[in-house]
Amino acid sequence: MSAGGKGKSVVAAVDLGGTTFTVGMLDRAGEALTSASYDTPRSHEEPLALGAAVAAVQGLLEKAAVKPERLVAVGLGIPGPVDPETGVIKQCPNLPELDGIAAVEMLEGEFGVPVFLGNDAFCATLAELRYGAGRDVENLVMLTLGTGVGGGIALDNKVRRGPRQIMGEVGHLIVDPNGPKCGCGNHGCLEAIVGRDGIVDRALRLLEQGRKSILEDQVGSDHDKLTPKLIAEAAQAGDELARQVVQDTGYYVGVALCDCIVLTDPDLILIGGGIAAAGDLLFDTIRRTVRHRSRISGFDVAKIIPAELGNKAGMYGAAAMAWEELEEGGSA
Ligand SMILES: [Zn+2]
Prior knowledge:
Largest sheet: 5 strands, mixed
CATH architecture of the largest domain: 2-Layer Sandwich
Radius of gyration: 21 Å
Distance between the termini: 32 Å
Structural class: alpha/beta
CATH topology of the largest domain: Nucleotidyltransferase, domain 5
CATH class of the largest domain: Alpha Beta
Mean pLDDT: 92
CATH superfamily of the largest domain: ATPase, nucleotide binding domain
Bound molecules: zinc ion
């Protein structure tokens, strides 16, 4: 950032995760003046993570020599459902000590500026729509393949969540009615099959059938060491068992995307998260499945592409949310 930006307004963006959190100061163009990541402190009783986020924002303001009066809003992304109207964190499966916490009230008390609360999948989708791979379109579906499966839908240049905040929860599309049990209690959700545990379980079942794989040499009998990342790397190295797991993953993602396409008619589909690093093998299988099964849509499968912003998406999205909410509130 040049010296010319010294007096401009900034927002602070916080992307709170279960193991790490990222904080940044961003201007209206989405340029990060500064950003940093930290370990998320944990406690069973107290919302330590929020206190740490406040301290991190104050630390960055000082470090970047940003005068406090330049801070005009704070955006906070949370890994779970939130109520943007009341500013309360509804449920945070990875940080349960935050359940029911009035985060907006608490942070507004600390900073004296408006604070806006969003779900992390909402923030990641907004980030890609404004600053990432989706910046040239108005309608997109985003899928993040991680420990869970996050999702988001943008229609007419807005990320939509619906009145009960569940629109775009692509991870809970049912892709196999008799499939494994999902964390939500249902059977056969996309997340139960292509989330972290689903992918690892499928690889383990194939190993238990006596199939040969370099994964066996890597993790030995300690199956807890098996991760989607290791499987993705083994697939890239040509390991047949790992390739099958990645291809099965692509198949189920493809099936879910066919449903997304008929429901939302997107211009673009973005895929992010760890296993997306499996690259062509995963994307080829997803595209082939969509080409074969999305018959009425004529969707161009070349428009299924990787997301761009990686693990910074949540921070950029929290900033975009803060700017846009601030402006909408101001003009009303
Ligand atoms: Zn589910």
